[in-house]
Amino acid sequence: MERINVFLAKHLWAQIALSVLTASVLITLLYPGRSFPSVVARTAVISLGGITVALVARRREKRAAGGTTEGLVSLDRKLRTGEVPSDPQERAAMRDLVGQRLHRSRHRVAALVFLAALFSAITVLTALTAGPRQTIGMAVLTVVFIGWMVYNSNLQTRRLRTMRAALQTEPSGGTTGEESEARRPPRPAESGS
After folding, report:
1. Nearest-5° angle of CA 38, CA 42, CA 43?
2. Where is this region: Disordered (predicted)?
3. What is the DSSP letter of 145?
4. Could you tell me if 30 and 138 are in contact, meaning their C-beta atoms sit under 8 angstroms apart?
5. Whole-angstrom Cα distance, residue 32 to residue 184?
C-alpha cells in the first residue's frame, strides 16, 4: 500500500486519471447507454476546474517543501506516519506545509455540510426524475462519499494538528544550551535593592 501511496504522491497525473476513470465508471453504471469513451471525455472536460485547483495546490505545496516532488513526497510520508523531522530545514519545510494545509482546510466543516446538502438534493432530484437504479446508486454514492470525506477530513486534520504541535517543541538533542539560551526572551530587569 505504501508503494501505491508513494507512486500516486509522485505522479499527480495518475491521481487525476484514476479519478476521471472512476467517475466515468460510476456514470456509466448509473446511466448506461452512452459509449464509455464519450463518458470519459465528458468527465475529463467537466473536471477541468478541479484539475486546475489540484495543480495549483500541488505547486504551492512543492514550493513549501523545498521545490521538489521528492521533498514533498518525503514530507507527506512523514506526515502520514507521524514522524517528526529532525533536520532544521526539513522541520521548516514541514512547518510551512502543515500551515498551508491547515489554512486551506479552515472552512472544512462548512464545505462538508455543503457537500452533504448538495449530494442529498441530487439524490432527491434523481428519485423524482429517474428510475430506481439511478436513485439507489445516487443514495449509495452519497452515503459512501460523504462518509469517506468526513472520516478522511477528520483524520487529516488530526494528523496536521499533531504535527504542528510536535514541530513547536525543539527536537531532542537538536540544540545546545547556548542556542536555547539565545532563543529565550530577555528577562525583565531586577529591581535594585
Report:
1. 115
2. 168-193
3. H
4. yes
5. 67
Q: pTM of the prediction?
A: 0.69
Helix (H/G/I), strand (E/B), else coil: 32: strand
**Crossing angle, helix 132-167 and helix 88-104, to 10 degrees?**
140
Residue 32 bridge partners (DSSP): 34
Spell out the per-residue pLDDT of the chain, length 193, in tens: 677 877 777 778 888 899 999 989 988 888 888 889 999 999 999 888 888 888 888 888 888 777 778 888 888 888 888 888 888 888 888 898 898 889 988 999 999 999 999 999 999 999 999 888 889 989 999 999 999 999 999 999 999 999 999 888 866 554 443 444 444 444 444 444 3
Assigned C-alpha cell, 35: 459509449
Phi-psi region of 159 (alpha: psi -120 to 50; beta: other; left: phi over 0): alpha
DSSP tag of 78: H
